[in-house]
Design a protein that fits this description.
The complex is a heterodimer of chains A (184) and B (198).
Chain A: H1 2-8, H2 10-15, H3 20-44, H4 50-75, H5 77-83, H6 91-99, H7 105-131, E1 133-134, H8 139-142, E2 149-150, H9 161-182
Antiparallel strand pairs in A: 1-2
Chain B: H1 2-42, E1 58-61, E2 73-80, E3 83-94, E4 99-106, E5 112-119, H2 169-195
Antiparallel strand pairs in B: 1-2, 2-3, 3-4, 4-5
The chains are: A mainly alpha (184), B alpha+beta (198).
């Protein structure tokens, strides 16, 4: 049932990936919160029934999301401002993870890693084609004068959420196509 | 019962962790916030234009009709090698949807260097004042002076030379007049503004 975990992470994934740097920020937060919650829940499964486990997952994920927000603030105020509405939404996949029957630390980590990977991919594609730049606003994190590369004007549609859905759809279609090629 | 105790322990540990982490990173967070404010205001100026830290020494301006301000506001003076290289003036205007706050950078000779919206509520997608980029509407005004004459400060619909943002004529007119007001203010107060010592 990990597809439910991924589905519930869709809102942060689509909303924060118009720039590579925000995509990396929300992806890192996702890996930390979802992966960390999965790992920390594992030893608790022995003590807790399904319902109390969900409650514990709520507390753990809340703690991790707050820690991620503090870390983002310490990293860059601009990144925090953009991603902060969506970091608490990362609790939803964590709750799905708790309700998920499949055990093992790996489940959460794999879901988190996949989230980071997808966010990075979407962020790179949307920034390159949408803004026509790469690593724009790098100075939010690095300071200094380096502010990414700028190429051309880009397609503004891809910087909007509707464009994010399109890019995600095309990515999924490409994945489907490849997996169909593998099987005869 | 045991389940409840475990959950309570988890909640307590979580709260303690967050509190401790916040205490540890508080100075870092504040420093990052200051840096962000500085970047937000100073990205109007190319870094080569100043070597002081303008935000450290604000010039306090009383309320002024030419700037549209109803309270004291802060202007900032950028210097290079001790010489004034730009003045950043705050301007308030009444937009189509609500107040527009602009920051206007002016060179010592009265040329407009750049301008940007700091706060605005104009219709998203039509009057995109927030965006940055080489094609931004406000870019075309850079380099203009008051001496260029009224046509350079009037929209084409009003008989001037400036194209309005399509579908946002009122916003364009407001912003144009606000920037003109800032330049008029600068021309009148040039001596006091440039002489201001931190």
């Amino acid at each position: 049932m990990t597809s439910r975990v991924h589905l519930l992470a869709l809102a942060p994934l689509l909303a924060c990936t118009d720039l590579l740097i925000t995509a990396l920020a929300i992806g890192g937060a996702g890996l930390f919160v979802i992966g960390g919650c999965g790992a920390l829940l594992q030893p608790l499964r022995r003590f807790l029934a399904a319902r109390t486990l969900t409650l514990a997952a709520l507390f753990i994920a809340g703690t991790l999301a707050s820690c991620a927000e503090i870390a983002l603030q310490a990293l860059s105020h601009e990144l925090y401002r953009i991603t902060s509405p969506f970091v608490p939404l990362l609790l939803l996949p964590c709750l799905a993870l708790a309700a998920d029957g499949s055990h093992g630390i790996r489940t959460g980590l794999r879901a988190g890693a996949l989230f980071l990977l997808l966010a990075t991919l979407l962020g790179a594609v949307r920034e390159m084609l949408g803004h026509g730049s790469l690593f724009a606003h790098a100075q939010w994190v690095l300071g200094g004068s380096f502010d990414g590369w700028t190429g051309f004007d880009g397609l503004p549609l891809l910087t909007e959420t509707a464009g994010a859905l399109m890019v995600l759809g095309l990515l999924l279609a490409a994945l489907r196509h490849r997996s169909r090629d593998d099987s005869p | 019962m045991r389940g409840g105790a475990v959950v309570a322990l988890v909640a307590l540990l979580g709260a303690a962790t967050v509190a401790a982490l916040y205490q540890v990173s508080k100075p870092m967070i504040e420093q990052r916030r200051d840096l962000a404010t500085e970047r937000r205001l100073l990205d109007l100026l190319p870094p080569s234009l100043y070597d002081n830290r303008p935000l450290q020494a604000p010039v306090v301006l009383p309320a002024d009709a030419r700037l549209g301000t109803s309270g004291t506001e802060r202007a900032y003076l950028a210097r290079r090698d001790g010489q004034p290289s730009a003045v950043l003036l705050p301007v308030h205007a009444k937009g189509y949807e609500g107040p527009i706050h602009l920051l206007v950078a002016i060179a010592p000779d009265g040329r407009l260097l750049a301008s940007k919206a700091l706060a605005q509520q104009e219709t998203p997608g039509l009057a995109a004042l927030d965006e940055s980029g080489p094609k931004h509407w406000m870019r075309q005004l850079a380099g203009q002076r008051i001496e260029d004459g009224p046509a350079a400060w009037t929209l084409r619909t009003d008989g001037g030379e400036i194209d309005a943002i399509a579908g946002a004529t009122i916003t364009s007119r407001t912003v144009l007049q606000a920037i003109e007001g800032a330049l008029t203010f600068f021309d009148a107060e040039r001596a006091t503004l440039l002489e201001a010592r931190p």
